[in-house]
Amino acid sequence: MNIVGLSGSLSSPSRTKGLVGAILNEVSSRSGHQTKLIDIADIAQDLGKTFSAENLSPALQKAYQQLETADVLVIGVPVYKASYPGLFKHFFDLIDPKVLEGKVAVIAATGGSDQHALVLEHQLRTLLNFLGVYTAPKTVFAKDADFTNYQVSSADITERIVLVAEQALWLARQHHATPVNTHEIVEPHLGLVASFA
Ligand SMILES: Cc1cc2nc3c(=O)[nH]c(=O)nc-3n(C[C@H](O)[C@H](O)[C@H](O)COP(=O)(O)O)c2cc1C
Known about the structure:
Elements: E1 3-7, H1 15-31, E2 35-39, H2 40-48, H3 58-68, E3 72-78, H4 86-93, E4 104-111, H5 119-130, E5 134-135, E6 140-143, E7 147-148, E8 151-152, H6 155-177, E9 184-187, E10 191-195
Parallel strand pairs: 1-2, 1-3, 3-4, 4-5, 4-6
Antiparallel strand pairs: 7-8, 9-10
Helix pairs in contact: 1-6, 2-4
This protein binds flavin mononucleotide (FMN).
């Protein structure tokens, strides 16, 4: 199973990167699989001058390849002006809309206060729905006060991370075990009663 994180912050060091890292660690320790992290801050310069997917720098090509091979994604953004950062959205604007279809994702965000926590529901989940990604029902929203030295230090957030990691791995296992287009319901005495093609 390939587990890939994406941190949408332009800052370094970054709380968002710390949060994505903490979720990746939890998913990794529960699944026994290694993880990779794509940091938008590392590719922001290339991203800002790229207007077509035909013309990607080696660093951008590598980031998209890592994303495409993922089974489980951990996507975190900081709230900038009541939304996700523009360069984070630009990263998705350059992507083929089909390549993320069927992947499972945890979504997370950081903000100065709780005021914009619903960015996760009405913006980030909506973007990933459009791209055909199955997002875990629970999300993680962490405020600046939940971090010490850019690492998660709040017990409540740590508890929440366990929940989202469990949900994402449950979703990923269902998806691997029962692909939607081959699922059939068989009743012992009626035989095949339904087939989803
Ligand atoms: C340009 C900018 C705009 C921001 N706008 C908001 C905002 O609208 N709402 C909010 O809750 N926090 C806002 N913040 C605060 C950040 O979301 C918060 O500090 C976050 O933890 C930063 O994450 P980072 O350390 O990964 O950069 C803003 C920060 C910046 C730099």
